[in-house]
Amino acid sequence: MTQSSDSQLIATNSLEALILEPLPPDTRVRLLRFPLGIQDSVLLPLEQIAEILQINVTEILPIPEIPDCILGICNWRGEMLWLLDFNNFVGYPSLLQLQPTSTAIAIIVVQINHQSIGLAVQQVNDIELHDLQQLQAVPFGLFPPDLLPLIQGILPGCSDAVLDLQAIIHCPLWKKHQERET
Question: How many angstroms separate the CA atoms of 118 and 97, rounded?
Answer without folding.
Answer: 19
